[in-house]
Design goal:
Blueprint: E1 25-27, E2 46-47, E3 61-62, E4 90-92
Antiparallel strand pairs: 1-4, 2-3
Length: about 90
């Protein structure tokens, strides 16, 4: 099931799927050829939170320079610097 969000939108992923166990978050972008076509780079990132709702250490920040959480529960599947290609340019599982 794919969900596309725009800036400011929110979604409750467990409301309709109370047994939800796995997510794949994808980020895709293209340059706007009508706005000068300047290249830009977006970066996907995720935070692993402890039971207190806080990050415990910098290893809990998963991004292009720390591709996998030590628990193995979060993985960044690689950094795309250009946004070239169709579909997701970066993914986190």
């Amino acid at each position: 099931m794919g969900i596309s969000l725009k800036k400011g939108q929110k979604v409750d992923l467990t409301k309709g799927n109370p047994g939800l166990k796995n997510l794949l978050i994808g980020l895709g972008w293209d340059t706007n050829k009508y706005d000068g076509g300047h290249a830009f780079d977006l970066d996907a990132a995720a935070f692993a939170l402890g039971e207190d709702g806080k990050v415990q250490s910098e290893q809990d920040f998963v991004f292009f320079n720390n591709l996998k959480h030590s628990s193995g529960s979060i993985a960044h599947l690689g950094d795309n610097l250009t946004g070239d290609g169709d579909g997701d340019d970066e993914q986190i599982t």
